[in-house]
């Protein structure tokens, strides 16, 4: 899993390039305002990316923040386990639905999680699931609900993951317009660096907070935008939708 934001954005752009033949060929420059500039034979094309997430009204933290915290705990726990030279195992960790941890607490949770898995491996005879419940709850890191560990003779590389479940958010025209409006405000500054400007809205669909699809009316809606072109890109299915625009017209 790519965790660096710029690497992730570049991966989305390259996948979009493979999926949409209309993207001009040229040298891709990584910038910040806009995110990328494609230098091609006819000029320069600025591309601003915006990843879409489930809205989290009334929640102190967005859904993706909880997923990022889970991933951070898992990677650190796996690193601690590997440093102890434990055998390669398959691990699936179920976290509580809302993790309210400070980032400074992550190393301690990771160490406790690694310890529990190492203990389970010592007596492992087949796939084993242990639960955070009485009388074991005091042994478990607070955000961990359950741990499943499995070891098979053919496994040569460990795989640690967290169990996720969620629903697909149907993104309506009004919600999409609000996202576009946020980016519209930046267009005048961006245009000083490129001849043409596109907005790429990315639905990654690789985690619950990123399960986003278009509501039925969204593909045919006309959006108000200062970008020359606006695209919806499903990074999982590689589907591309170009939104119609009703102005202001920059042509």
Structural account:
There is one protein chain. The protein is of the alpha/beta class and 251 residues long. The chain has two domains: 5-56 and 167-247; 63-162, no CATH class. The chain has five helices and 13 strands. It has helices at residues 5-19, 63-83, 106-122, 173-184, 187-190, and strands at residues 27-30, 36-40, 43-51, 90-95, 128-131, 144-150, 159-162, 169-171, 196-203, 212-214, 222-224, 229-234, 239-247. The strands form three sheets. Strands 1-2-3-9-12-13-11 form a seven-stranded mixed beta sheet, with helices on both faces. A four-stranded mixed beta sheet has the order 5-6-4-7, with helices on one face. Helix 2 (63-83) crosses helix 3 (106-122). The chain is elongated.
What characteristics describe this protein?
elongated; alpha/beta; 2 domains; 4-stranded mixed sheet; 251 residues; 7-stranded mixed sheet
What is this structure, in a nutshell?
The protein is of the alpha/beta class. It has 5 helices and 13 strands. Strand 1 and strand 2 form a beta hairpin.
Topology:
Elements: H1 5-19, E1 27-30, E2 36-40, E3 43-51, H2 63-83, E4 90-95, H3 106-122, E5 128-131, E6 144-150, E7 159-162, E8 169-171, H4 173-184, H5 187-190, E9 196-203, E10 212-214, E11 222-224, E12 229-234, E13 239-247
Parallel strand pairs: 3-9, 4-7, 8-10, 9-12, 11-13
Antiparallel strand pairs: 1-2, 2-3, 4-6, 5-6, 12-13
Helix pairs in contact: 2-3
Number of domains: 2
Overall pLDDT confidence: 86
Terminal CA distance: 40 Å
Biggest sheet, open or closed, and with what strands and sense?
7 strands, mixed
């Amino acid at each position: 899993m790519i965790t660096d934001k710029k690497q992730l954005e570049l991966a989305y752009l390259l996948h979009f390039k493979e999926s949409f033949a209309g993207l001009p060929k040229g040298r891709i420059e990584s910038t910040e305002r806009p995110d990328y500039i494609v230098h091609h034979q006819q000029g320069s094309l600025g591309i601003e990316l915006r990843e879409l997430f489930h809205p989290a009204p009334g929640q102190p933290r967005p859904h993706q923040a909880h997923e990022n915290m889970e991933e951070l705990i898992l990677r650190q726990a796996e690193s601690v386990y590997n440093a102890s030279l434990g055998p390669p195992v398959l691990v699936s960790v179920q976290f509580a639905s809302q993790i309210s941890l400070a980032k400074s607490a992550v190393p301690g949770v990771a160490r406790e999680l690694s310890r529990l898995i190492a203990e389970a491996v010592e007596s492992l005879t087949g796939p084993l699931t242990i639960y955070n419940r009485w009388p074991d709850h005091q042994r478990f890191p607070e955000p961990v609900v359950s741990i499943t560990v499995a070891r098979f003779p053919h496994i040569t590389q460990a795989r640690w993951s967290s169990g996720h479940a969620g629903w697909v958010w149907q993104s309506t025209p009004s919600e999409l317009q609000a996202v576009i409006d946020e980016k519209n405000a930046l267009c005048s500054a961006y245009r000083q660096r490129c001849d043409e400007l596109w907005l790429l809205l990315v639905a990654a669909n690789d985690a619950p907070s990123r399960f986003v699809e278009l509501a039925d009316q969204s593909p045919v809606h006309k959006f108000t935008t200062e970008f020359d072109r606006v695209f919806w890109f499903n990074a999982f299915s590689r589907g591309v939708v170009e939104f119609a625009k009703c102005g202001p017209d920059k042509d």
